[in-house]
């Protein structure tokens, strides 16, 4: 049996007391973190709304963008009924006394300036410009609302789905493709869509033409390029009459290339739909 000397005993007591203090401090820090997570959350941005819907209990959302309640723009429109809506106006937000207000990079500058003058700081989240930015945004938002573990789970799932897309087409010969948006717009280099096309083993003909971002392309030029694949977001096909006219054109309908239809939202709210789009693209290309 080990004997504790008179010299060792005070040291052990001091160490025990220190351990107790440190344990209490760590516990209190965790408790404070849980307690100080914002309970009344307002958002001026449809994309942030969709992430918050996944991250926090819905009763903590005191206001969301009116666009989030519009099924033309939002996949969760039917689910958000009853939650107060805002149109990006300060007078809609202030009476709700939110603990935190979120906005996108380009949302309502006048309203945000007024809110901040009235003592209501607004947290702006930058627009994701690359695939890696999406996970960064989700994790940042999760940390701000006290939902770090949930945010990590979402990013891990999304990353796995993107990896599945890349693995499925790694050994195949690249197919030529256009990502076709509303109003006859094709999507070129410097976009999330372009990155996904490369991961899917596709050659983006818009990027090969030197196009950057979003560009309108005449139907005749699109047909003369003879893409093997035409990617269309379903929401665009349903919501915009001009895009539907393009898609219904006899020349396009009889062109003979593969039309891949994807869930809507990547161009608008990439963070909330990336995984779904990646899986749908993998499945459609496998047909």
How much helix is in the residues? Answer: 40-55%
Kindly report the name of the CATH homologous superfamily of the largest domain.
Nitrogenase molybdenum iron protein domain
Structural class assignment? alpha/beta
The CATH architecture name of the largest domain reads 3-Layer(aba) Sandwich
Named CATH topology of the largest domain: Rossmann fold
Q: How confident is the prediction overall: mean pLDDT? A: 83
Order of helices and strands: HEHEEHEHEHHEEHEHEHEHHHEH
Distance between the termini: 73 Å
What does this structure look like?
With 287 residues, this protein is an alpha/beta fold. The chain folds into two domains: 116 residues, Nitrogenase molybdenum iron protein domain (Rossmann fold), CATH 3.40.50.1980; 121 residues, Rossmann fold, CATH 3.40.50.1980. The chain contains 13 helices and eleven strands. The strands form two sheets. Strands 6, 7, 8, 9, 10 and 11 form a six-stranded mixed β-sheet that branches. Strands 3-2-1-4-5 form a five-stranded parallel β-sheet. Helix 6 runs parallel beside helix 13. The longest helix has 29 residues. It is elongated and about 55 Å long. The termini are far apart. The N terminus is likely disordered.
């Amino acid at each position: 049996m080990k004997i504790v000397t008179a010299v060792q005993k005070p040291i052990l007591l001091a160490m025990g007391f220190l351990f107790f203090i440190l344990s209490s401090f760590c516990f209190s820090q965790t408790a404070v973190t849980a307690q100080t997570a914002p309970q009344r959350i307002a958002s001026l941005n449809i994309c942030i709304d969709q992430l918050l819907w996944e991250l926090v209990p819905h009763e903590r959302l005191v206001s969301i963008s009116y666009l989030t309640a519009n099924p033309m723009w939002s996949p969760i429109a039917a689910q958000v009924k009853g939650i107060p809506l805002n149109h990006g106006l300060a007078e809609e937000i202030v009476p709700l006394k939110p603990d935190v207000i979120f906005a996108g990079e380009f949302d309502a500058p006048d309203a945000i300036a007024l809110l901040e003058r009235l003592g209501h700081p607004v947290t702006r989240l930058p627009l994701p410009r690359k695939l890696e930015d999406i996970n960064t945004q989700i994790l940042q938002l999760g940390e701000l609302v006290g939902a770090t573990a949930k945010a990590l789970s979402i990013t891990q799932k999304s990353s796995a789905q993107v990896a599945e897309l890349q693995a499925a087409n790694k050994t195949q010969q690249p197919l030529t493709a256009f990502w076709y948006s509303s109003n006859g717009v094709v999507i070129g280099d410097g976009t999330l869509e372009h990155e996904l096309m490369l991961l899917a083993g596709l050659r983006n003909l818009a990027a090969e033409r030197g196009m950057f971002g979003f560009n309108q392309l005449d139907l005749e030029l699109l047909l003369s390029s003879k893409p093997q694949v035409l990617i269309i977001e379903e929401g665009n096909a349903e919501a915009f009459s001009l895009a539907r006219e393009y898609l219904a054109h006899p020349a396009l309908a009889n062109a003979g290339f593969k039309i891949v239809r994807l869930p809507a939202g990547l161009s608008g709210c990439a963070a909330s739909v990336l995984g779904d789009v990646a899986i749908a693209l993998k499945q459609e290309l496998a047909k």
